[in-house]
Amino acid sequence: MEECNMTLNGVQTLGENIADNAGLKEAYRGYRKMVEETMDGEELRLPGIDLTQDQMLFVTFGQIMCSKYTEQGARNMILTRRHTPGRYRVEGTISNLPEFAKVFNCPAASPMNPDEKCTVW
């Protein structure tokens, strides 16, 4: 997305931001439960990819949000849609999950592991 000088409207996107946070949190919990119950806690790695399956879950979440906009398209999205643009949906969601910081070893107080995280439940 080309950078446009606009501010995102957190009130306009609040419901979807909460849903993204809760949805990814529950998807990760469900995945870990499945690993514990069906694989005795062992996760298989994909050949040739130097990431754990836990890391792959978060990478996949980021990839499904990949997008590119013209400046006008970005302005239109920010003004009219309930979703935050993809980049910020991903960064906002994963930076609120301690599990993400743990599997990627993000330093405390870093952009992807802030001290203050937003948790609804």
Outline of the structure:
The chain has 121 residues and is mainly alpha-helical.
Task: Give an overview in words.
The chain is mainly alpha-helical and 121 residues long. It has a domain at 10-38 and 49-103. 55% of the residues lie in helices and 0% in strands. Helix 1 (10-38) crosses helix 4. 13% of the residues are buried.
Distance linking N and C termini: 32 Å
Count helical runs: 5
The overall pLDDT, averaged over residues, is 87
Q: Give the low-confidence spans.
A: none
Largest pleated sheet: none
Binned, the helix content reads 40-55%
Backbone structural class: mainly alpha
Gyration radius (Cα, Å) is 16 Å
Layout: helices, strands, pairs:
Layout: H1 10-38, H2 53-64, H3 71-80, H4 86-94, H5 98-103
